[in-house]
Design a protein that fits this description.
Blueprint (H helix, E strand, L loop, with lengths): L7 E12 L7 E7 L2 E3 L3 E5 L6 H8 L7 E6 L2 E2 L5 H5 L2 E4 L11 H6 L3 H4 L7 H13 L15 H14 L4 E5 L7 H18 L2 E5 L3 H7 L2 E5 L5 E4 L1 H6 L2 H6 L4 E4 L4 E4 L5 E7 L1 H13 L2 E3 L7 E8 L2 E8 L2 E5 L2 H8 L3
Parallel strand pairs: 4-9, 4-10, 7-8, 8-9, 14-15, 14-16
Antiparallel strand pairs: 1-2, 1-3, 1-5, 5-6, 10-11, 12-13, 16-17, 17-18
Length: about 350
């Protein structure tokens, strides 16, 4: 692993983002943004739809002009850099589906070298070495001769990440890189990005709706809310200080700090306590919440479920005012606890 220098690769000061109005005032999406991204760090940008995540990514990438404030890359103001200079400092992976045909994987990845190869695009030996490294880092060796159109969505996303790696920048910005992927590929992409940040020392910023994966993989989170504000911090701090709850709070659901997941609000919630085997109790609580139960402490209830692990599975005992009923599955448990 490369020694990681926690120097600042990107910083904003009083940044305001949004869109210039065609005939009226500019539409401000978020303002007073003061953030920094460091080398070797994976940062996850989260927030409700419409909070400005994609706008921020595209503004940092130089694709949208800021409405105010400043952006620096490695201490240099973005406004004073040419497009070529920016392309040698940061690479971008957008959320658009890849529809290119009649192009093999190696050729598409090699496009990442365009900021260095000039108009003719002739690859030098050093360019080929960087491309081979990008292919190896993303595990794409078996696919290099495949046509892009024959790949799965997960494989295509890896190709675009490899192209960004071939660009050999110290900063990578990704706009919802897991948007079109199934769960295994979402996990694999997040694992890959964390590995690359650690092993290459690159600063990586990605916007995502994958709250659970962001909490597990991100070194820090940037949270944007609907009120044009942005909060930053280590994921666990943002959970414990209730920032996540505040950003994602809605009348129909809320963020549960105890589990790092969302709970749906059910009308007329019934209360119950759950204890026993840690794994079994966790999934029992999940099922009961889905059925409209509110989980409370044992001393608040006469009705308590005890979960025990047996050699061939789990067993549930429901104790209600001293009477006990046993079940061999969660399905049987919740079926018998539904109102008749």
């Amino acid at each position: 692993m490369k020694d990681i220098d926690l120097h600042t690769v990107l910083q904003t000061t009083d940044l305001s983002i949004g869109y210039e109005g065609r005939s009226g005032p500019a539409k401000v999406v978020a303002d007073d943004i003061d953030v920094a991204l460091h080398a070797g760090e994976l940062v996850c940008l989260l927030g409700p739809n419409g909070s400005g995540k994609s706008t921020l990514i595209k503004t940092l990438a130089g694709m949208h002009a800021p409405l105010g404030g400043g952006i620096t890359l490695f201490g240099d103001g973005v406004q004073g850099l040419s497009p070529k200079q920016i392309a040698q400092k940061l690479s971008t992976v957008l959320t658009d589906r890849i529809t290119i045909g009649n192009l093999d994987v190696y050729t598409l990845i090699s496009f990442g070298r365009s900021p260095y190869t000039g108009w003719l695009g002739s690859l030098r030996e050093e360019d080929r070495k960087v491309i081979e490294w990008a292919i190896e880092a993303t595990g794409l060796q078996p696919l290099v001769h495949r046509d892009i159109s024959t790949l799965s969505d997960g494989e295509r996303q890896k190709v675009m990440i490899a192209r960004a790696l071939a660009q050999d920048t110290d900063l990578i910005l990704l706009d919802e890189p897991t948007a079109h992927l199934d769960l295994p590929n979402r996990v694999e992409i997040m694992r890959l990005l964390r590995k690359l940040a650690r092993e290459t020392g690159k600063g990586i910023l990605l916007s995502t709706h994958e709250l659970d994966l962001a909490l597990k993989a991100g070194d820090r989170c940037w949270l944007m809310n609907d009120e044009r504000a942005l909060f930053t911090g280590v994921p666990e701090d943002l959970v414990l200080n209730s920032t996540f709850e505040a950003v994602f709070k809605r009348e129909s659901f809320d963020f549960d700090r105890a589990t790092g997941s969302f709970n749906l609000h059910q009308p007329g919630e019934k209360k119950i306590a759950v204890r026993g085997n840690e794994v079994g109790a966790f999934w029992t609580r999940r099922a009961l919440k889905r059925e409209g139960f509110s989980i409370v402490a044992e001393d608040e209830m006469n009705c308590t479920i005890t979960v025990r692990e047996k050699g061939d599975g789990f067993r549930w005992t429901v104790e209600n005012s001293g009477e006990g009923q046993k079940y061999n599955s969660i399905r049987a448990l919740i079926t018998n606890m539904r109102p008749r």
